[in-house]
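In response to a reviewer's request, we include the raw inputs and outputs for one of the modeled complexes. The two entities were modeled together in a single run.
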Amino acid sequence: MPILNPPASLVAELTHRCPLHCVYCSNPIEMAKRESELTTPQWLDVIEQAAKMGILHLHLTGGEPTLRDDVVELTRHARKLGLYTNLITSGVGVNEDKLKQLCDAGLDHVQLSFQDSQEITANEYAGTKAHLLKIKTAQMIRTLPLAFTLNIVIHRENISRLNEMIALSETLGADRIEIAHVQYYGWAFKNRGRLIPTLEQVKEANTIIQNAKERLKDKVRIDFVLPDYYAKFPKPCMGGWGKTVMLIDPAGRALPCHSAMVIPELEFDSVTEKPLQEIWANSTSFNQFRGEAWMKEPCSGCERKTQDFGGCRCQAQMLAGDASATDPVCSLSNQRASVQNEVETAMASTPTSWTYRTL
Amino acid sequence: MSEPIHARIPKLIRNCRLNQTSTDAVLLMPEGALKIKGSGKDVIELCNGTLSVQEILAQLKKRYPQVKATQIEIEAIEFLKLLREKRAVDF
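The model returned the following C-alpha cells for the whole complex.
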C-alpha cells in the first residue's frame, strides 16, 4: 500500500442555514437542520485533529458560516494551530464588526460570491435581496488586510453580462476572480434546464475570460471553471477521490466531496463517533473510489486516468446511474450521448420557474 | 514584463505566508500550499516588495559564501519563476 498523505484541505460546512436561496446551490437537497449541527467544542476538536494530521487549509463554509456565533472562535483556534483559514461567505448578515473580529482572529482569505452585475437578476437567482448587501460587504473586506477572492457564477441567463461582472469585481478590488460555470449538483441539478448555457455562449465567455486574463495579468488573478457538459474530458473532481479534500457537513458526517450523498451505496462516518484520521484512512466511503482499482473501461485502460481520475463519481451516479462508471461528460464514455440529450432537452424547453434552495 | 528580470521587484502575494513546522516549511497561499526546502525560505523572506531580484541575489550570495555565485543566481531565479508560476509571488 502506498503511504496515504493527509488531505491538503478540510472543508468545514459549519451550517446549512443560509439567508440566500440560490437556484444553483451545491448543497445537498437533504440538508442538515440546526438541531443536528455540531457544537463549538466538537468543531474545535475537529480543527485540532485536522492540524495534527497535517492538513494545511481550513475552508469555513456552509450555508452561511457567519450564522454560527462561534465562527470567530473557530477561526482563531485554526490560525493558532497554523492552518490557513478561508471564509466562504454570501456576504449577507456579515457586519463590519464581525469581519474585523475575524480578521483579528487571524483569518487569511475571504471568498465572496456574486450572482450577477445587475441587482434585479442577481436577487432573482439568490431568491432574496442580497446584491447591494454583498457590495457593501465587499467594500468592508477591502479595507481589511485579507486576501479577497470574488466568485462569479455563470449560467445561461447571466453569462451575457460576464464583462460587467468582471468590471464589478475589479471595482471592488478583488485580488482574485474565480469565474465558474454552474456545476450541476444539488439545487443546480434541479434547475439545470434554465442554467445550461448554449455552445455559442460558452465560446463567447471563453474569449471574454482570455481577454480579461491578458488585460489584468499583473493586477488580478483569474481562475476559470469550465462547464462540465461541454468538456471533452471530465474534470479531475476534488483532485481525486479521497486524495486532497475532506469535507465535514454540519452534522459531522465526513464526506469525500460536497455531493457524495447522492451515491446511495456509500455510508458516511461521523466525527462524533470516530477520529478524523481513522475516517480518512479507513472509512469505506473514502476508500470506495480511492486509487484506480474501482475503475472500469474505458477509464482503467486510459492514459488520462492519473490526470482526471475518471472524473466525477457523483456525476456518474446522477447521469449514468452508476457511481463507478466513467464520468458521462467524457468523450470516451458510452454515455456521452445521454449528456448531449440533457443539453438539447435543456435548450428546447426552458422551465419558466426556478426551484429555490430551502432548508 | 519587458524590463530584465534582475530589475524586477518580487513581492509575496497578499496573505501568503510561511508556516514552519517541526520538520519542514510550507508556504501557505489562498489557493494552495508549497513545500519549501533549504534556502527557499531565505528567498521567500527576501520577496518583501522592496528588494529587486538583483538585490535578492546579492543578499543570498552574502548568506551563502560557500556556494558558487553562478549557482545561486541560476537556482534563485529558477525558484522565483516557480513561485511566480505557482502564484505565490508577483514581479
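As requested, we also summarize the result in words. Chain A touches chain B through 18 residues (CB under 8 Å). The radius of gyration of chain A is 20 Å.
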